[in-house]
């Protein structure tokens, strides 16, 4: 008798479907396609030589430790390094406040397991990071979406949204994925005040904050929180859980990231992580530590900022040059993404198909919304190809858009 697996699936799998967008994106794998759809860092800048040396050093000096089981919390020198870097950005935590995870994606999943009962609500930005929606969906979360504008989440709408009683607020403060916007300083403070008034905690997910192209770094929410409580500007209050990752500053294939949380919360997360994967690869953590220490990481990040800034500029210039009137876009000051808004009524799936026929791809915006009536939007990634290809891709996209929008003027040179 053959097993009918579906009848054995857990109830939680009911809400899990593969997204139509992912199916559509399979169309973008052809090599001739200029794809702005992914979220990939520039592979040609991965510090491969540095990693080769670090792997050899770790194996030569501490091979037995590197290949043995290890503690769930993470490699102590790496936890120290993460704590010290956070301290330099304004919040002083102990290494014991750091849990090393297998990517921030695992951090989101562990947080879901810790905080979300079936039917619990999570307050999210709309649009928000698709991977977080997927991670929380496994715990049967429902969502309260609060719109974004160019200054980040609309804090004026939060008091009303919080009446629905979310477990926590999931906030992407810097160069947001997908919209590319940054939460203003004033709104960070409002957000923290609202969190204090209502007792609803904030989960601050910040994979992109270090990839800033211009201006001063915005203060992390976790640091504003301590100051608002009168604890001093560098203390850690324990009210905000913060997530960070080496995926965008070193390489995503490492799967090394971290959670900052109060020690008691770290203890509970450790229990969940033990049941999940025992620990993140100790070998990789040791290698990351070797690569990141002695100032190399900061030098490397400085280089990435330059490269990505030029690519962002190339995309903005090409959009200015080619995109027909009526299309708007954000002006990210860091990160990997830019967000396009098309005139109301633009058929976004048809536009995606027309673009793919012209060998250019983007992610249709509806993937990042939880509500069905979202506006016609698109996420474009600018980090993973050179300026010339970006300009060519935007030109092709603009032609597809012009053909789709009845009122658009033809694109020059098309
Ligand atoms: C906002 C956000 N959070 C988390 C992640 C996951 O990152 P990681 O590679 O560390 O799992 C991403 C990846 O793109 C992201 O954009």
Explain the layout of strands and helices.
Elements lengths: L19 H6 L8 E2 L12 H20 L8 H13 L9 E4 L1 H13 L5 E6 L3 H8 L4 E8 L2 E2 L4 H5 L5 E4 L13 H14 L3 E4 L15 H8 L11 E6 L11 E4 L2 H15 L4 H11 L3 H27 L5 E2 L7 E5 L6 H10 L2 E2 L1 E2 L12 E5 L5 H18 L10
Parallel strand pairs: 1-12, 3-4, 3-6, 6-7, 7-8
Antiparallel strand pairs: 2-9, 4-5, 8-9, 10-11, 11-14, 13-14
Helix pairs in contact: 2-10, 4-5, 4-9, 7-8, 11-13, 12-13
The protein binds pyridoxal-5'-phosphate (PLP).
Helix/strand order, N-terminal first: HEHHEHEHEEHEHEHEEHHHEEHEEEH
Tell me the structural class. Answer: alpha/beta
Low-confidence stretches: none
Question: Which cofactors or ions or other ligands sit in this model?
Answer: pyridoxal-5'-phosphate
Helical fraction: 40-55%
Amino- and carboxy-terminal Cα gap: 61 Å
Work out the radius of gyration.
22 Å
Number of helices: 13
Strand order across the largest sheet? 2-9-8-7-6-3-4-5
Features:
single chain, alpha/beta, binds pyridoxal-5'-phosphate, four-stranded antiparallel sheet, 41% helix, 14 strands, Aspartate Aminotransferase, domain 2, Aspartate Aminotransferase, domain 1, 414 residues
Structure explained in plain terms:
It is a single chain. This protein has 414 residues and is an alpha/beta fold. The chain folds into two domains: 10-39 and 298-404, Aspartate Aminotransferase, domain 1 (Alpha-Beta Complex), CATH 3.90.1150; 48-293, Type I PLP-dependent aspartate aminotransferase-like (Major domain) (Aspartate Aminotransferase, domain 2), CATH 3.40.640. It is 41% helix and 14% strand. The chain contains 13 helices and 14 strands. The protein has helices at 20-25, 48-67, 76-88, 103-115, 130-137, 158-162, 185-198, 221-228, 263-277, 282-292, 296-322, 348-357, 387-404, and strands at residues 34-35, 98-101, 121-126, 142-149, 152-153, 168-171, 202-205, 240-245, 257-260, 328-329, 337-341, 360-361, 363-364, 377-381. Strand 6, helix 7 (185-198) and strand 7 (202-205) form a beta-alpha-beta unit. The longest helix is centred in the last third of the chain and has 27 residues, at 296-322. 46% of the residues are buried. The mean pLDDT is 94. It binds pyridoxal-5'-phosphate. Pyridoxal-5'-phosphate is lined by residues 39, 103-105, 129, 131, 172, 177, 205, 207, 245, 247, 252, 257.
């Amino acid at each position: 008798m053959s097993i009918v697996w579906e009848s054995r699936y857990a109830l939680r799998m009911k809400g899990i479907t593969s997204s139509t967008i992912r199916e559509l994106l399979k169309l973008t794998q052809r090599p001739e396609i200029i794809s702005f759809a992914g979220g990939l860092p520039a592979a040609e800048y991965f510090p491969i030589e540095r990693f080769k040396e670090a792997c050899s050093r770790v194996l030569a000096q501490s091979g037995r430790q590197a290949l043995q089981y290890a503690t769930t919390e993470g490699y102590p020198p790496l936890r120290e390094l993460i704590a010290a870097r956070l301290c330099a950005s304004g919040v002083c935590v102990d290494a014991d406040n750091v849990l090393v995870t297998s990517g921030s994606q695992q951090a989101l999943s562990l947080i879901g397991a810790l905080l979300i009962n079936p039917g619990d609500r999570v307050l999210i930005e709309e649009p928000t990071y698709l991977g977080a929606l997927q991670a929380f969906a496994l715990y049967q979360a429902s969502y309260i979406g609060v719109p974004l504008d160019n200054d980040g989440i609309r804090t004026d709408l939060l008091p009303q949204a919080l009446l629905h009683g979310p477990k926590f607020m999931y906030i992407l403060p810097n160069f947001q994925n997908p919209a590319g916007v940054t939460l203003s300083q004033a709104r960070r403070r409002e957000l923290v005040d609202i969190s204090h008034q209502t007792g609803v905690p904030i989960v601050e997910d910040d994979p992109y904050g270090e990839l800033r192209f211009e201006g001063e770094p915005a203060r992390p929410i976790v640091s504003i929180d301590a100051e608002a409580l009168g604890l001093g500007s560098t203390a850690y209050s324990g009210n905000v859980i913060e997530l960070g990752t080496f995926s965008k500053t070193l390489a995503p294939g490492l799967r090394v990231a971290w959670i900052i949380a109060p020690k008691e919360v770290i203890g509970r997360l450790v229990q969940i992580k033990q049941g999940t994967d025992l620990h993140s690869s100790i070998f990789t953590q040791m290698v990351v530590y070797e690569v990141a220490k002695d100032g190399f990481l900061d030098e490397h990040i400085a280089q990435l900022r330059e490269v990505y800034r030029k690519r962002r500029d190339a995309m903005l210039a090409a959009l200015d040059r080619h995109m027909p009137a009526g299309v708007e876009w954000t002006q990210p000051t860091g990160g990997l993404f830019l967000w396009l808004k098309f005139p109301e009524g633009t058929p976004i799936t048809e536009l995606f198909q027309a673009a793919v026929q012209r060998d250019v791809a983007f992610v249709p915006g509806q993937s990042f919304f939880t509500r069905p009536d979202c506006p016609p939007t698109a996420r474009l990634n600018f980090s993973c190809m050179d300026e010339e290809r970006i300009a060519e891709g935007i030109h092709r996209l603009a032609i597809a858009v012009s053909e789709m929008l009845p009122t658009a003027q033809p694109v020059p040179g098309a």
